Amino acid sequence: MPRLAILTGCLLAVCFASAAMAQPAPDAEAAIIREKLTELNSAIQKLKAGREDIRPVADVEVFAKAAEWIVRHNEFYKPDYAKWTVDVLDQGLKRAAELAEKRTPWFGRPGSTILGYYSDVDGSVQPYAVTIPSSYDPKSPKRWPLHVELHGRGDTLNEVSFIRSHEGKVPKADAEYIQMDAFGRTNNAYRWAGETDVLDAMAATKRLFRIDDRRVTLRGFSMGGAGAWHLGLHHPSLWSSVGAGAGFCDTVHHLSLKEPLSPLHQQLIRIYDAQDYALNAFNVPTIGYGGELDKQIFASKTMHEKAEQLGVKIPRLIGPNTEHKWHPDSLKEFMAFHTEHTAAGRPRYPAPSQIRFITYTLKYNACDWLIVEEQIKPYEASTVEAEVDGATDTLKISTKNISVLQVMRDVAANVVIDDGKPLILGSAAGGLLPGVYFEKREGGWIAWDYNQSHKYAAHDNEGDEPRKRHNLQGPIDDAFMSPFVCVRPTGVPWSEQQNEWAKWTLTRFEGEFDKWMRGKVPVVNDTQVTDELIETKHLILFGDPGSNAVLAKVLAKLPVKWTKSGMEVGGKP
Questions:
Q1: CA distance 447 to 467
Q2: In this predicted structure, what is the pLDDT of residue 557?
Q3: What angle is formed at CA 155 by the lines to CA 288 and CA 13, rounded to 5 degrees?
Q4: Which residues are bridge partners to 485 per DSSP?
Q5: How far apart, in whole angstroms, are the C-alpha atoms of residue 13 and residue 516?
Q6: How many CB atoms lie within 10 A of CB 101?
Q7: Could you read off the pLDDT of 523-546 as tens digits, one per residue?
Q8: If you ran DSSP here, which 8-state letter would residue 23 be given?
Q9: Which of these, 537, 520, 519, lies nearest to 528 by C-alpha position?
Q10: Residue 227 neighbours by CB under 8 Å, 6+ apart
């Protein structure tokens, strides 16, 4: 099925934290950096040549990427940054020589090590840091707990400073877990490609090390705390515990907005505002912290109160007489909370027997054995209260604003949804698929048969009415969280003025994404778009139906009427 095709009808603009004053490297260091970067890039190309699996090369290429981006954006914020960049290149050259000899001495050593992975979003190489405890034995079958640490905002943060702060650091003597520090593509509060970065770096860590999936802790402070609220409560079944220090949990208060948002914007902020997902703390132990004198204590206070109103616990720690930092005693309590829940781990499948879950978007639609497949109204609260009655082997579910629901079949033998008639769960649809799909119709809920379920699971909706569903639900920002490509027009435009604007918009987007999302925007001409590209990537179309052949091709399928004289949406010009 073709992936989402998007028409750029407005300027793609997002607000990021302001960076410190950028400046180029001094001339002497700049010459050394250029020379070493050229040498390292040449070594990387040789390492990739003829290699079927290039993933190990990412551990080398992250050092070249760090030097390339600091140069291209003049991010030498302090005098030491030039020296650090030379050091980074030397480390990359050392690793390149070792990998050429089929050696990876940096892998699995105690302490903190920079690793890399290639992102499917834009093909870029991205860094992450893994810290291995001294007691780690790569030959042991033991599966280790994982702590995912999210950093705070840093005006002078880039790949070079990230590498500098992690590479070769000594492990904590008493650590009984492996730690992964996410780069998150710098300062975007772990949203968009920054969110994908955390999940992808986790996946890369699990591929390389024996990680216990039932014992994954998410924690962070400041912007990292905001990321913990966001990722923890939007993906509640990924973690054994979640801890947010300071950070923010909403849009209006955090940005000190005085004017009320429009009804549309009030809906859209529900996609990300963690305060609207407090119910999901029922499914994952969650704790908040704030310093008594820190204005960002608002987040832990708000999340605690929101949860309490729903009968859910989010304990909060308060650092006495403390501003925007950890109080030592609070940090001990915070880490003790995670130690306790790491020991317990997440319930073994098919547990838990009870789920209370909320979402406002199909982007964040899953919790353990339950998936919200379709909403009645997008950006409105969709809730599920589900509990297994062990005496009757029946799953009882109450829903709100949900039209299609998937439940894993081995949770119970039968299911009752919204006090309707009992339906078969365990052996439904021939017992041939892991999950059973239920659809709400005028007369109540029904279970889909095997053919309908298989077609839906395979995203085979050719000829059907378009349906919003997970990863194809919009809005536009969702397209940049998974593989995408911008499609440049090459034909004759209907409007030269619009064509110039489209070119300017693409150029600006390339620059903004490169700077703030730390990757090069993939761009192809409309004449280069293949069926495979349509099938595997989101398409960001620039131009008009005259200049962009792909746009002309899909125009009939869009809810937009576009002619040379104007556009109509919903019958209105």
A1: 18
A2: 81
A3: 90
A4: 539
A5: 11
A6: 7
A7: 999 999 999 999 999 999 999 999
A8: B
A9: 537
A10: 150, 184, 189, 190, 198, 220, 247
How far apart (Å, rounded) are the C-alpha atoms in residues 402 and 91?
53
pLDDT at residue number 10: 36
Look at the block and give the residue holding tokens 């760090």: 66
Distance of alpha carbon 73 from alpha carbon 551, whole angstroms: 33
Phi first, then psi, for residue 203 (nearest 5°) are -60, -40
What's the CA angle centered on 220, arms 115 and 278, to 5 degrees? 130
Residue 201: is its pLDDT beyond 70? Answer: yes
Residues 6+ apart with CB under 8 A from 332: none
CA 300/CA 289 separation, integer angstroms = 6
Query: Cα-flanking dihedrals φ and ψ of residue 485, to 5°?
Result: -150, 135
- Determine the Cα–Cα distance for residues 383 and 386; give it in Å rounded to an integer: 10
Question: HSE on the CB side for 34, CA within 13 Å?
Answer: 9
Report the half-sphere exposure of 1 (CA within 13 A, side-chain side).
18
Each residue's pLDDT tens digit, 11-66:
333 444 445 777 899 888 999 999 999 999 999 999 999 899 999 999 999 999 99
* pTM for this prediction: 0.95
Distance CA 447, CA 439 (A): 6
Residue whose pair of structure tokens reads 């919903």 in the numeric block: 570
Neighbours of 137 (CB within 10 A): 8
Q: What is the 3-state secondary structure (H, E, C) of 437-463?
A: EEEEECCEEEECCHHHHHHHHCCCCCC
Q: Which domains, ranges and CATH numbers included, belong to the chain? A: 102-344 (3.40.50.1820), 354-457 (no CATH), 483-569 (no CATH)
Reading the block at residue 130, the tokens are 């893994």
Whole-angstrom CA distances from 211 to 88, 137, 172, 402, 464 are 29, 13, 18, 35, 42
pLDDT confidence tier of residue 82, bands split at 50, 70 and 90: very high
Task: Provide mean pLDDT across the span 504-526.
Answer: 97
User: Rounded to an integer, what distance in angstroms lies between the CA atom of residue 468 and that of residue 173?
Assistant: 49
* Continuous H helices in 218-348: 223-234, 263-268, 297-309, 328-344
